[in-house]
Amino acid sequence: MKIGLLSDIHSELNSLELALAQLQRQNVDQIICIGDVVEIGRGRGDEVVARLKELAIPCVMGNHDQYSVGHHLWLLKNGDPADPQNRLLKPDTFTYLQHLPEILRYEWAGQRVVVSHGTIWTLHPQTRPYIFKRIVELADTDILILGHTHIPMRAHIEGRWVLNPGSVSERGSRTCAILTLPELCFSVYDIITGEPIQEAFIKYPHIEVG
Amino acid sequence: MRLNLRYDPQHDFYQLIGVEMSADTETIQRAYRQKAKEIHPDRNPDRMEWATEQFQRLTEAYSILSDTELRSQYNDLRWAYYSRTGISKPLSSAGVRSRSTYTRPRHYTTRPGYKSVKRRGVWLEERGMGWLRPFYVAALELMTGPYRYVMPIVGLILLCNGALIFGGFLSPSSESPLDEKLATENGPTSTLMAGLGGFISTPTPAPSVTPIVMPGNCTQYAVIEFPADGAKLTADTMQLIGTVDHPDLYTYRVEVELLGDNPRNEAKLIISMNRQPQILPESPIYHNQLASLSPLLRYPAGYYRIILTIDHQNGSPLAACAVTLYKE
User: Fold this and answer.
1) Which of B251, B292, B306 to mutate against chain A (most A CBs within 10 Å)?
2) A142 touches chain B (CB under 8 A)
3) CA B171 to CA A100: how far, in whole Å?
4) What is the per-residue DSSP string for B54-71?
5) CATH architecture of A2-199
6) Cα dihedral sign for B185, B191, B192, B196?
7) Blockwise average pLDDT, block size 10, chain A, 210 residues
8) Domain's final residue, options B144, B160, B190
9) Burial of B189 (0-12, 13-18, 19+ CB in 10 A)
10) What pLDDT score does A15 carry?
11) Among A56, A69, A105, whose Cβ lies nearest the Cβ of B270?
């Protein structure tokens, strides 16, 4: 089973299309979006959300999605409707963002998979090992898929995996990733050139918590 | 490098011209011209010798400071002088770095209060006060030392604290009807607590927690209206409609559990959605969309249980409602 992962779109429709094209070229069975679909005052967020809805891509709530919902509510209450700077979300987009789940759990090929944006579970390559251990134990899973850092990463934490496909947006690494189960093969691709990219690899076979 | 270039603290070039050390070439030139007009020997016929000497020094200073290379050398010499000798820097040398060693400020030693300690306390210092003596000395030093102006304020603060603490002891206990109610309900233990008054604050009673209802039933606070219990889940019934209304409503949580082919199977939590507290406290929702179940599209066919929970601000669940569905 091939699972395509894309994260941190930040309302960039072009980047999303590039990533989708890349994943479709690889014949993935399912695509999952790992949060940060829109960003306040940037790009075409409504169209990005419409595209995700059209393809029925499961998505989790990212910090920027939370901010957008809050900003929308704030504008409704305090904003000046005549000001062209105050761009409200479409009602459908707002509802979609408001009801995004925080955590999705799957069980594919005997592996427990947890998908979360990582707003509070931020793990980047420099994070200290005991924090890795704590968060992986908290998530209670075999494979933990996170976003948020814009850095592609594959970490092996005491027999469990933490995966991050990086970001498709212009500010990030411009990558998407494919996870193949049950072989547990994780590969990161550049969305522009379509070539595989070496992600950050971290291995902590045993972590002592002192 | 000019060999005879050296730093003379008596005739600091920057002080002579009257500029900051960080001044640029134009400022130096302007200041030099101004100064030269003032002390030109032709303008000071009454003190010709002084003016000539000053004017020579000024010209020399300007010739050094107007040259970038020489000026940087001079700055180095000047900085080396001050960093070596530890003399406090002259007024116009704002650019000179301050010394790293710490010298005691003058007022620490020459404050008049310090000397008078000895004069005033001669008798007591000789005789002592028994075991109270160290306290006395400490108090005297505090009252006469450099902190003497701060001590009254500290004393006032301590006094206020004391007043608060002992005022709590003396104040009439169990003023509020809630305390009285507690006292009557809980008997002697609670009376003791009330007798202590404000000294030990009685913990605020936890809000009444409605017990969680078992799956299949719903309380009046959290109701899942659509889809109904036991319904079939199709692509067009992908939204959860219900009512959430509780006086202590903070957030509500929708969790989806996978049961598999048998509704009596052990449940596995697969989706958790938390309604973000954008407006606090969360306003009640009547007959409206509580969650979108579209992530379920990608899950396999089988039985699912959807649980709606209302959370209090302290994180305790207040009411819950659950329905079991079948997804084709």
Assistant:
1) B292
2) no
3) 53
4) HHHHHHHHHHHHTSHHHH
5) 4-Layer Sandwich (3.60)
6) positive
7) 94 93 92 94 90 92 92 85 81 90 90 92 89 91 93 90 93 92 90 88 78
8) B144
9) exposed
10) 93
11) A105
pLDDT of residue B49 exceeding 80, the answer is yes
CB contact under 8 A, B278 and A103: no
CB B146 within 8 A of CB B108: yes
List the domain boundaries for chain A: 2-199
Q: Report if residue B226 sits inside a domain.
A: yes
Do residues A164 and A144 touch, judged by C-beta distance below 8 A?
Answer: no
Q: Hey, are the CB atoms on B270 and A106 less than 8 Å from each other?
A: yes
Q: What is the ipTM of this complex?
A: 0.75
- Count of domains for chain B: 3
A113 to each of A55, A104, A135, B52, how far by Cα in Å?
A: 21, 8, 14, 91
Q: Are residues B14 and B72 in the same domain?
A: yes
Q: Judge: B275–A106 Cβ closer than 8 Å, yes or no.
A: no
Q: What six digits make up the tokens of B119? A: 């004069």
d(CA B316, CA B207): 10
Q: Please give the residue that has the higher pLDDT: either B268 or B184.
A: B268
A-B Cβ pairs (cutoff 8 Å, strict): 49
Helices and strands, number each (H, E), in chain A = 5, 11
**Domain residues for B135?**
110-144
CA-to-CA dists, residue A157 to A138, A141, A154, B53, B201, angstroms: 13, 11, 10, 80, 47
The 10s digit of each residue's pLDDT in B126-138 is 566 777 878 887 8
> B244 and B306: one domain?
yes
Q: Decide if B198 is inside a domain.
A: no
pLDDT tens, position by position, B169-217 = 665 554 545 545 544 454 444 444 444 444 444 444 444 444 444 445 5
Are residues B259 and B319 both part of a single domain? yes
Q: Is residue B206 part of a domain?
A: no
How far is A105 from A102, CA to CA, in rounded Å? 10
Query: In Å, how far is B235's CA from the nearest CA of chain A?
Result: 11
What whole-number distance in Å separates Cα of residue A114 and Cα of residue A124?
Answer: 17
| Chain A contact present for B269, CB below 8 A | yes
> So what's the pLDDT on residue B281?
63
A70 contacts on B by Cβ (under 8 Å): 276, 278
